[in-house]
Design goal:
Shape: elongated
Order of helices and strands: EEHEEEEEEEEEEEEEHEE
Strand content: 25-35%
Number of helices: 2
Radius of gyration: 19 Å
Largest sheet: 13 strands, mixed
Number of strands: 17
Amino acid sequence: MLLFKCRTGDAIPIEVEGLRPDAFLTMPVLDIARVRVWHGNQSIELGECFDISGDAGDGTLRITGDCSRIKWIGAGMTQGRVEIDGPVGMHLGSGMRGGEIIVHGDVSDWCGAEMASGRIHVHGSVGGQAGAGYRGARHGMTGGELLIDGDAGAELGSTMRRGLIAVGGHVGAFAGVSVIAGTLFLFGSVGPRCGVGVKRGSIVAYQPIPSIGTYAYDCEYEPLYPQLVLRHLRQLNFPIPDTAWSPGYRRYSGDRLTIGKGEILLHNA
């Protein structure tokens, strides 16, 4: 295991796009410490902001300390595991293509943006645009799993194409906006304009959604797949309310302002 202890208290953000396990598998610690990163508009060595020890041979990175000003941890990673104790800055796991990131703390904006595979599990809350596409991109998340035990900010899963997002707490405005495909499980309260512009995909909500005026009521039934997803989430130690296990849902199809092939399932709690 390769250990990183953050020792910067600087308010200037640090961009560490190379900080991922697959980049360090064969590198000695001294070479890792010399990797160049950006501190504001200045290039510095990674060892100037982290105390680094251990060995990356097992593909595991453990990061401790306040990383709330450190961006791009795990961005583009293809394999391995990152464990973080403490808050994390923007773009965690952006473009991730494999592996696993576990965070015991809160994460800033763009967590898991445009990720294609792998799993991110945040035992805390995240900022806006989690699992979303960057401005001007054709799509956001295209695969993998993004699990958030706490709250999530605005535009959760914007333009996502595939994958699973689950949120235990409150979700901000425009959750699932312009989703192309994929699945969102929302266990807490939901902000306004949820599901606007959805083409395909499913939003499964366990508390009332403020307005679904552009969706049409279809039926009340007991689909099988939410139960399968709930069992999967339970195996991953995701917190699931006891009331979520009852099988009944009301199905709404939409968004009728687009092609209308998406759905919102409202749980009969």
